[in-house]
Specification:
- The longest helix has about 35 residues.
- The chain has a two-stranded parallel ribbon with strand order 1-2.
- Helix 2 packs antiparallel against helix 6.
- It is about 75% helix and about 0% strand.
- The N terminus is likely disordered.
Length: about 325
């Protein structure tokens, strides 16, 4: 292959046989994705799993009709052509990426998949001169366009309002326990625990470079420690808090960001400019923690304010006093 020249074919250059082969492989992929969604959701969200199972069966039926047409026109040997072989053809996100983002994201992704498939069949129908092929592709475009209604009907069948509400609440609870709670704990730890060492060094040395290096080390060290601690503390099986790796990642990243927030201003050479900027950022960080606690953890606003702002102020004062002494 010549460097810089794509080895993929353009959609406009595909033969009618290749278009049918691409449609067959695409339907196989979509059915597989829906089944993986169903398996991922079956234990916690059986109603939604049933919806995805039936959507997979619909894709299987489309594939069967496409294969029958291919046999009639071109024989039994179907060319190997997939999405990644066609330039500009819509791609599917990796299942592992979407399925880890929750129930509602899977529903949104399924809706996007149907819209993309509809567009493909309409474009493919315009490219063929065979009447039977054009009719089938047009029918499949209409079927994909109607899948939103089909999905809604399936949800009414498998997801009555109580079931849908229960599943949505469980998905929200899992999101809170897996991502928000560890991330909040990390942000609090990173924002508050690094205040004392960073401002102690700042007021003791008045050297912004040294202060930044200490803040960077403290933030990264705290993030690594917090991440491993969260991941090792609970495997999530009995508590229902979700994957320890996700929780550890959330806690570790937010801990590091919490510390870096008020360490980065010390990249500024002037000590007082850097310190004032750092104090402003600390104020923003603490109020962000208060908002998250109130928004996601249902902590009363005044209580969250008292706990976080007062605690942060005391730690900051301790660091400043120690550094000044």
């Amino acid at each position: 292959m010549i460097p810089g020249i794509s080895s993929r074919k353009r959609f406009a250059d595909l033969s009618e046989q290749e278009i049918l082969a691409l449609a067959i492989s695409s339907e196989e992929d979509d059915a597989r994705i829906y089944r993986q969604y169903g398996e991922r959701l079956r234990e916690e969200f059986p109603g939604s799993a049933a919806v995805f199972d039936e959507m997979a069966e619909e894709e299987d039926e489309h594939r069967r009709r496409l294969i029958e047409l291919h046999k009639q026109r071109f024989g039994d040997v179907i060319p190997l052509i997939r999405r990644e072989h066609v330039s500009g053809y819509y791609a599917r996100k990796p299942v592992w990426l979407v399925e880890n983002l929750g129930l509602e994201r899977m529903r949104e992704e399924a809706d996007a998949m149907e819209r993309q498939a509809e567009l493909f069949y309409r474009m493919a129908a315009e490219r063929t001169g065979d009447a039977d092929t054009r009719k089938l592709l047009g029918d499949l475009a209409a079927a994909e366009a109607g899948h939103s209604n089909k999905a809604a009907a399936l949800q009414q069948e498998h997801l009555d309002p109580d079931t849908r509400g229960t599943e949505d609440r469980e998905a929200h609870r899992k999101f809170i326990l897996t991502w928000v709670q560890p991330g909040l704990a990390g942000l609090m730890d990173g924002s508050v625990s690094t205040l004392a060492p960073i401002f102690a060094v700042a007021f003791a040395t008045h050297n912004t470079s040294t202060t930044f290096l200490v803040g960077l080390a403290a933030s990264i060290g705290a993030g690594i420690s917090m991440g491993f601690t969260e991941a090792a503390s609970d495997d999530g099986v009995l508590s229902g808090r979700g994957s320890p790796y996700k929780r550890g990642l959330s806690a570790g990243i937010m801990t590091t960001l919490g510390g870096l927030g008020h360490a980065l201003p010390y990249l500024i050479a002037d000590f007082w400019t850097a310190t004032i900027a750092a104090i402003i950022i600390v104020f923003v960080e603490l109020w962000a923690i208060v908002w998250i606690q109130n928004r996601f953890m249902d902590t009363p606003f005044l209580r969250a304010t008292f706990q976080v702002v007062l605690g942060g102020a005391l730690v900051f004062a301790a660091g400043a006093l120690i550094g000044s002494g």
